[in-house]
Amino acid sequence: MAISADRLVAVTSDKPQGHRPAKTNRIELRATEDDRDLLAQGRLAAQRVVDDREQFVLDADAQQEWERINSRPARSMPGLARLLERPSPFFTPAADQPQA
Questions:
Q1: Of 69, 61, 51, nearest to 15 (Cα)?
Q2: Beta bridge partners of 8
Q3: pLDDT at position 35
Q4: What is the model's pTM?
């Protein structure tokens, strides 16, 4: 089956094959062993799906919805902005760094 150009949204990466970005952020949360295993399995499954895909095909309705969602202006979220302005409880600055 041929795919017409109006039905195709291609997502490609310019990163070299096998490129792994530096891990500069830490995520900390408390979870049961079962929850941790489930999260790890879900992450690996999602990574396998995305890694193998260079093209994502949408029908006309789905492509229109994609464009509608991605062309919306960003929402103002004052609560989130305040939260992000607070210092992290998981980070202790070094003695030579100014505190926020």
A1: 51
A2: 57
A3: 92
A4: 0.32
